[in-house]
Amino acid sequence: MGKKGIIIDVEKHFVTVLTEDNGYYKLARKPTMYVSQEIYFNKSDVINTAYIIRRASLAAAIVFIIGISIFVSMMLNKNTYNDKILAYVSLDINPSIQFAIDKDYKVMDADYINKDAMELMADLEPEGMKISEAFYIIINRCVEKGIVKEDTKNYYLISGAVKSNKNSDRDVAKTNENKLNSLLYSLKKNVSAMHGKNNEVDVFQLDRNDIEAAKKSGISLGRYALYKEIVKTGSKISLNDAKNFEVSDLMITYQKNKGNMAYNTPTMDNMETAANSPSTDIIRTPFPSGLESSSIPGNTQNILSTPDNLNTKSILSTPIKGSNNNSNSIRPSADVSKSAAAATPKPETGTGLLAEYYDNIDLTKLVTTRVDKHINFFWFSGMEPAPGVKKDDSYSVRWTGYIKPPYTGEYKFYVNRDNGVRLWINNELVIDKWNEQWNVIDTGKIILVGNQKYDIKVEFYNNTGNGIISLWWTSILVEKSVVPASCLYPAAKQPEQAVLPGEGKGLSYEYYDNTDLTVLKATGTDKEINFNWGTGSPDQRVHQDQKYSIRWTGYVEPLYDESYKFHIDYDGGIKLWVDDKLEINEWVDSDKSSAATREIKLKAGNKHKIKLEYFNGNMYGRVKLMWSSPSTEKSIIPMTRLFAKE
């Protein structure tokens, strides 16, 4: 006869179990065992019978008292843990794995019931995963091990039971049953469409008493459900058979005999909706734009079917408290289509990502923002990627918002780029190629849960020539395609930074096609001096050989009567005059990258003459003109305080 106890100590290879009759037993440790876990075991499982301690002596009594204290403490912790469990869900392929899940459908614990499961999942720690994500990983590992095959029919058994007790509130219990029903449908839908052809997926929803019965028998909820149903047809099958037979054999036997089973008409109680059921796992997301059902591998008929096709069997051997249904026979579970329809709001559709366009390559000179439906651009040399960005082929863009994949799975992202790109999803850097390569494709992978929003950020810069940036994805259920607007949601637009008041329009510029300010190519007005051209050119009329010079002239008007310092970040050489006085002279190509003036007394409202000369004779071109004062933080001098020469 089996025993029941609580694990009170875990060692490297053994666990110590305290039973209800105050006995201590040493058992072999399994990967899923933990302190305070309630387990069942047989006499044959005991490692050393001499280790059994009875209350036969004073020493044993002392140990017993200590043990009882530990037991009480563990029971309190166990009760707190158990209160968080919504249901138990099992997946049988031939590995049999059972999960305890919470109200958000996240895994709290996993029990690898047979040897196949232990070998398959020994290194997996599923706690905290969505149950759908755990299923995905298990099935893909089965593919890798050859348990599930792409070109044959595969058999899957999914089962679940709500954790409740005799005193559970009727309405709460009913809501939880419906939530589990919807979850099981969602899991069936996802599994049906995975590897293989014409996959067979049976789903059972069981009663709370079946949880204990299956546990005592050492089998999963699914195998226990099939055992009960096969027995009802008159077939002779033992629990040991149900434990050891192939899942496919059990399912085939069940399918052959289930036509003889009588079903009761569902009651209205079973038709009520799960009003609080999380939408993540029960709403079928529409296919992305351009993705047709015929392109999806696996049993697409199942994944595209209505919830009426679930055909989940609900085995309720004990009626819910307060229910008028006292039948012990099988009856179909609630009509999931009605339940899900009542609980599901109109699906939200994405519109794209917030795009910020910068007039340099380091994402610092913001020009404009907008919402881009997707990231799929090819800007020819000389084109402006957005209004206000100079046509000098040196710009950068940042896209931010959220991405909501339609299905759970591992997604592979592709970026076609010219030049640098960085991709973050869920704050994880998936692709990091911030370099000068052109017209290349980079990839990165990440596991995402279907119908759940994740933060996404894409940063891109173009240094010279054509600008190319395109974001694609693919997964088992999603054909390789540009990530569509329907799966992208823009971030909130950040409030614009306050700009100092003023009527300035910027400084006059002269662009030269050599390093000594003698071969003039272009003139005009720059709103501010905040440039990073990289290896590109400041203007289409200047050759892209990294050898050029620029002169800016005009006036600067301070907002306050106080001393100011002027700061310049640069690559190359610079000279700066304020009121015709040379304040900075670094007209050499050196390793220096910044310079600053002394404190210069300026008068508010007065226009002070300013001239800045710059040359680039090396590789990268960069120059930024800033100021600071007791009342002004170090910052780029804004257009409103700069005036072109008269």
Structural summary, described in words:
The protein is an alpha+beta fold and 646 residues long. The chain has four domains: 3-82; 85-215 and 263-343, no CATH class; 353-490, Toxin - Anthrax Protective Antigen, domain 1 (Alpha-Beta Complex); 507-644, Toxin - Anthrax Protective Antigen, domain 1, CATH 3.90.182. It has a seven-stranded mixed β-sheet, with helices on both faces. Strands 12, 13, 15, 17, 18, 20 and 23 form a seven-stranded antiparallel β-sheet that branches. Strands 24, 25, 27, 29, 30, 33 and 36 form a seven-stranded antiparallel β-sheet that branches. Helix 3 (131-145) runs parallel beside helix 4 (170-192), helix 5 (208-217) crosses helix 6 and helix 6 (221-232) packs parallel to helix 8. Mean pLDDT is 77; it is low at 49-59 and 260-345.
Number of helices: 10
Helix content percent band: 10-25%
Radius of gyration: 35 Å
Strand order of the biggest β-sheet? 7-6-5-8-9-10-11
How does the helix and strand content classify structurally? alpha+beta
Mean pLDDT: 77
Major sheet details:
7 strands, mixed
- The total domain count is 4
Regions with pLDDT < 50 over 5+ consecutive residues?
49-59, 260-345
Strand content: 25-35%
Based on DSSP secondary structure assignment, what is the total number of beta strands? 36
Distance from N terminus to C terminus (CA atoms, Å) equals 102 Å
Shape: elongated
Layout: helices, strands, pairs:
Layout: E1 3-10, E2 14-19, E3 24-28, E4 38-41, H1 58-83, E5 87-92, E6 96-101, E7 107-112, H2 115-121, H3 131-145, E8 155-162, H4 170-192, E9 200-206, H5 208-217, H6 221-232, H7 239-244, H8 247-257, H9 300-304, E10 313-315, E11 331-332, H10 336-343, E12 353-358, E13 366-372, E14 376-379, E15 395-403, E16 409-418, E17 420-425, E18 428-433, E19 438-448, E20 454-462, E21 467-474, E22 481-482, E23 488-490, E24 507-512, E25 520-526, E26 530-534, E27 548-556, E28 562-571, E29 573-578, E30 581-586, E31 594-596, E32 600-602, E33 608-616, E34 621-629, E35 632-636, E36 642-644
